[in-house]
Design goal:
alpha/beta, six-stranded parallel β-sheet, 2 domains, 13 strands
Length: 409
């Protein structure tokens, strides 16, 4: 590999192994099976337990189930990392849930891509920051990260109410095809609610949804278009366009959603306990991946922060940005031999010119590599030399403390 890779065990994957995609609760015996899977994963070297509680079947998991799974990770030095249950109207309640999981499972908490979603919640980041600061002051080991763009990127199917996902994606598509159920879905999406993260209510309009990645080759011309444009092309109402696109793509479309405010993004970025994450899968301007239309963060996250927030807007010092890229995340991940330049540490080193480094990827044209990263060393080996890829693959699989314990058995 060209990079170092550590992995969490996903609570949703554990749930799927035992319960499938159904909206059901585990019996005590099934919960024991799930806990055993977490223990096995920690012995295999996982660094913690993660959740993405907005995406079915994860929302079907009660808090107590997550506490039970996270608690299995804690003795092995694991952390609990979460895409919270709700990032909009009920964000404070979601933070409370994450804090409770940390407290009762005796495990540190990392809130992934801290945000305040939805036009009705813009300006609420000070409340969120105050709540987390208070928890930290009271002794909670809680921190967060951000990718610092005003659009998120997720499954288009996340717009569909959680009950309609019961049984998996194929069942959801069937429900969209059924006129009666489709009407119920439409009604739910048009009704403001604090009970689920209703993304339709969070956006200014269909122009705020950018179609990014489709799986059906026939739909490839729609990549890079807004939902409002597709609705005009198809001569349909925007919500019907959303439903029909999901049907045509078997529910597997990915979108960028412009649902955050710049002041909220900036305030989160500036917190001393917020590290930087990328939150995108691998991307490439070439080959199969080059046919996709990813979020620009896939290419630009770190240079974007150096250009925009450090150099141009001076919202962060260069030193603080580097700390958020390196030592802070290494510290959160318990990687004690990485993250700082020091004798005896692994040489993961980036050499760049702070005056010229910049991102080129945009929402309109995302498949563009950033400029200005002159040298990148992974474990002491140059993977970028003079701005060019070397083809070397010195990356390692990084394993959590549980891996060492299992080896000693």
């Amino acid at each position: 590999m060209g990079i170092n890779l550590a992995t969490f065990v996903g609570a949703t994957q554990v749930r799927r192994m035992v319960l499938g995609d159904a909206d059901v609760q585990p019996t005590s015996q099934q919960l024991e099976q799930m806990k055993e899977l977490v223990r096995q994963a920690m012995h295999d070297g996982a660094v913690g337990v993660s959740t993405s509680l907005m995406y079915a079947p994860a929302p079907y998991a009660k808090t107590e189930e997550i506490i039970a799974l996270a608690a299995e990770s804690a003795p092995f030095g694991g952390i609990y990392a979460t895409h919270m249950r709700n990032e909009s109207n009920s964000i404070l309640e979601s933070i409370d849930e994450a804090l409770r999981i940390g407290r009762e499972a005796h495990i540190p908490v990392e809130i992934w891509h801290l945000k305040v979603a939805g036009k009705n919640n813009w300006g609420r980041m000070p409340e969120v920051v105050a709540k987390i600061n208070q928890a930290r002051a009271e002794g909670a080991d809680v921190a967060a990260d951000t990718y610092a763009y005003t659009a998120w990127f997720n499954d288009f199917s996340a717009f569909i109410p959680q009950w309609a996902h019961d049984g998996g994606t194929a069942k959801m598509v069937e429900r969209l095809k059924d006129p009666t159920t489709r009407e119920r879905i439409r009604k739910d999406m048009l009704t403001p609610s604090n009970d689920w993260d209703n993304e339709w209510q969070e956006i200014p309009g269909p122009e705020s949804i950018l179609i990014c990645v489709v799986r059906n080759p026939k739909l490839l011309p729609l990549q890079g278009k807004r939902l409002s444009e597709v609705a005009k092309l198809w001569n349909k109402d925007p919500m019907d366009t959303l439903f029909d696109l999901l049907i045509e793509d078997n529910g597997d479309t990915s979108v960028a959603v412009f649902g955050m405010s710049e002041p909220d993004v900036t305030l989160a970025l500036q917190q001393p306990w917020v590290a930087i994450n990328n939150d995108s899968s691998g991307a490439s301007p070439e080959g199969l991946l080059g046919q996709e239309h990813p979020h620009p963060r896939a290419y630009g996250t770190f240079p974007h922060i150096l250009r925009k927030y450090v150099r141009e807007e001076k919202k962060l010092s260069l030193e603080d940005a580097i700390r958020k890229f390196s030592s802070l995340p290494a510290q959160r991940m318990r990687l004690t031999d990485r993250g700082v330049l020091k004798e005896g540490m692994w040489a993961d080193v980036v050499v760049f010119d702070p005056a010229t480094v910049r991102d080129l990827a945009t929402f309109e044209n995302p498949n563009q590599l950033s400029e200005g990263m002159e040298y990148v060393l992974v474990n002491g080996v140059a993977v970028i030399d003079g701005g060019k890829m070397t083809g070397k693959l010195p990356g390692k699989v990084l394993r959590g403390a549980g891996y060492i314990q299992s080896g000693a058995k």
